């Protein structure tokens, strides 16, 4: 676990795909195509299947317009994400960290993680059901086996982003082909399909399904993902280069998301033409849908194609969910953990509720859990959409590529519609729950404060960027004050400089800052605190592998500096840097301490403050924060 100071989203593949040199015509366009396909798989994951099947079986073709509207919303929002990543070179989470206070970013990160967990829950259930349908594997064991696919991402990311994109496109091809054949077997009434594009909401149950469809289509983690993936393309940051990148990424999004729309529409049309038409209005379960397809369509291939497409959808979506998790953690917290730890943690969080549901409610409870997961996703949308619109509307930071008023108005209208629908759903569900329980006071104590807090947060993230811009405007118009510096003493030359290192990419900046201040005349001491459990207990008496490794790394740094003419020593501290660093500094004869801008702990930093804040109050010499 370490902080990431490189400020590059998905650093291992950042700028790894060339788009300009030696590429012309279709080759240049194809170089840009790819990021939106990784995003689009989130629009056809098993969660979509559950809401589409529920909508088609209960209300026929009448909610088809919701899919079309969701697709238009998605195209607009994903184009905003790609614009943010291309122009500013940051993803949505990084832009939020630059704009909002630390506590607000922490809450936004938690909400983003909940959305990713809800999405991953859908993938777990979908994969398990697909394995059950195709091979007869029990759902319980299918859920457990989904842990293993965590390592496919690690293999693909090491092979490069283009290999991952090719793998995802192949899965999309399998899904699309399967449903094309399913539609051939179903033979839907095209006139009734067209009528389903006329907006209508039959009742409150349809509203619940409609919001689930929106949540399943326009997913919050995709907004973070797309703003990062477009940065895998190496572009020239000239007017021509940026315009070309914006144009080709829009084409990429339009093709990929329209393919996703046709897949979703095919699922809903299949459910409407096969189940609704035969009076089976309560088919909201993927298992039931699979079992009924054979009898109603009269071919054994229909359920097989359904199961194959389900496995492909679950597998493709789970890979992109992992990338989104890495992006939001690095972006909001400036913190990175090992990819396999990240993947395993996300997957385990999703597996637990799935196993509990199977154990207590049986396999048929998974269908309701799938729809619920998509409603949870929809409830998170406002917290990602509002900051995104603010960021791409900022004329100063977007350097002439801010969105124009028509797109700005359309973006805000979409956000208002989604937030209003979610608010209506929350009010309806809470009112229904209160009428069913004997003592609603517990709901007032537990649920209502959470709803109120969410409302306050939405208002805050909406107005904070506006107030921040006004503050910056007033600050820039503050009159300049003349200061007489003639009586100040000559700056002291530092002779003995201590440099605190944490073996992250921030070390380079810390060492560079130190040698700029001390030149070759100063003496430097490289300091690192060993934080292993043994070091915390035994202090300097410890002699474990981590201590030896840390000492060796310090010596590598020191030898490199000595070769360049600097006088360098090394020293290890033991235990928490907040305690060991001040002790070393105050006992030594140092003139200056160089610290990186962030510590490398996690929850302790969030709760008790960073290492920088703690150390600078305990040392008696100046502290330079690199």
Automatic annotation (TrEMBL):
Cross-referenced CDD domains: USP-like
Subcellular location: Cell membrane; Membrane
One of the protein's GO biological processes: iron ion transmembrane transport
Family matches, as Pfam families: Nramp, Usp
Keywords: Cell membrane, Ion transport, Membrane, Symport, Transmembrane, Transmembrane helix, Transport
Gene Ontology CC annotations of this record: plasma membrane
Residue ranges crossing the lipid bilayer per the database entry: 29-44, 64-86, 106-129, 135-157, 166-185, 205-225, 246-276, 301-324, 344-363, 369-389, 409-427, 442-463
Major localization class: membrane
HAMAP family: NRAMP (MF_00221)
Protein name: Divalent metal cation transporter MntH
Organism in which the protein naturally occurs: Leeuwenhoekiella marinoflava
């Amino acid at each position: 676990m370490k902080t990431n100071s490189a400020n590059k989203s998905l650093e291992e593949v950042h700028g790894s795909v060339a788009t300009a040199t030696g590429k012309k015509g279709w080759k240049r366009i194809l170089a840009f195509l790819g990021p939106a396909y990784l995003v689009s798989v989130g629009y056809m994951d098993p969660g979509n299947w559950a809401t589409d099947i529920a909508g088609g079986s209960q209300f026929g073709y009448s909610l088809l317009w919701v899919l079309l509207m969701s697709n238009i919303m998605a195209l607009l929002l994903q184009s905003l994400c790609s614009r943010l990543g291309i122009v500013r070179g940051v993803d949505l989470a990084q832009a939020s960290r630059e704009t909002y206070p630390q506590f607000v970013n922490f809450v936004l990160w938690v909400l983003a993680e909940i959305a990713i967990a809800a999405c991953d829950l859908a993938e777990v259930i979908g994969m398990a059901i697909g394995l059950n349908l195709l091979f007869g594997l029990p759902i319980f064991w299918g859920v457990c086996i989904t842990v293993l696919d965590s390592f496919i991402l690690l293999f693909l990311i090491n092979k490069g982003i283009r290999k991952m994109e090719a793998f995802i496109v192949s899965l999309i091809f399998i899904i699309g082909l399967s449903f094309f054949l399913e539609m051939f077997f179903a033979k839907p009434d095209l006139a009734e399909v067209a009528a389903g594009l006329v907006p209508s909401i039959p009742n409150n149950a349809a509203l619940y399904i409609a919001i689930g469809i929106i949540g399943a289509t326009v997913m919050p983690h995709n907004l973070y993902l797309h703003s990062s993936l477009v940065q895998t393309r190496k572009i020239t940051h000239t007017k021509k280069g940026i315009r070309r990148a914006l144009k080709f990424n829009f084409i990429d999004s339009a093709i990929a998301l329209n393919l996703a729309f046709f897949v979703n529409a095919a699922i809903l049309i299949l459910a409407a033409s096969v189940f609704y038409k035969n009076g089976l209005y309560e088919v909201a379960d993927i298992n039931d849908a699979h079992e009924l397809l054979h009898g109603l369509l009269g071919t054994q291939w229909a359920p097989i194609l359904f199961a194959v497409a389900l496995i492909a959808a679950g597998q493709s979506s789970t890979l992109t969910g992992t990338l989104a998790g890495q992006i939001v953690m690095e972006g909001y917290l400036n913190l990175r953990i090992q990819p396999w730890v990240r993947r395993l943690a996300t997957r385990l969080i999703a597996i637990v509720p799935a196993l509990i549901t199977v154990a207590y409610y049986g396999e048929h409870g998974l269908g309701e859990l799938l729809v619920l997961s998509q409603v949870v996703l929809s409830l998170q949308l406002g917290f990602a959409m509002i900051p995104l619109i603010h960021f791409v509307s900022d004329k100063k930071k977007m350097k002439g590529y801010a969105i124009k008023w028509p797109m700005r108005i359309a973006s805000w209208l979409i956000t208002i519609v989604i937030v209003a629908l979610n608010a209506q759903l929350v009010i309806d569900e809470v009112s229904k729950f209160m009428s069913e329980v004997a003592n609603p006071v517990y709901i007032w104590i537990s649920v209502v404060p959470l709803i109120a807090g969410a409302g306050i947060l939405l208002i805050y993230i909406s107005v904070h960027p506006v107030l921040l811009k006004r503050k910056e405007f007033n600050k820039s118009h503050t009159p300049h004050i003349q200061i007489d510096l003639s009586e100040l003493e000559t700056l002291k030359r530092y002779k003995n400089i201590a440099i605190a290192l944490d073996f992250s990419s921030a070390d380079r900046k810390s060492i560079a800052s130190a040698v700029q201040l001390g030149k070759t005349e100063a003496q430097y001491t490289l300091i690192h605190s060993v934080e292993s459990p043994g070091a915390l207990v035994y202090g300097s008496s410890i002699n474990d592998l981590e201590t030896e490794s840390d000492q060796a790394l310090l010596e590598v740094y020191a030898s490199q500096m000595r070769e360049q003419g600097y006088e360098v020593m090394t020293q290890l501290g033991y235990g928490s840097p907040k305690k060991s660093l001040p002790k070393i500094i105050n006992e030594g004869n140092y003139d200056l301490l160089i610290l990186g801008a962030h510590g490398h702990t996690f929850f302790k930093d969030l709760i008790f403050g960073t290492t920088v804040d703690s150390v600078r109050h305990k040392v008696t010499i100046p502290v330079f924060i690199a």
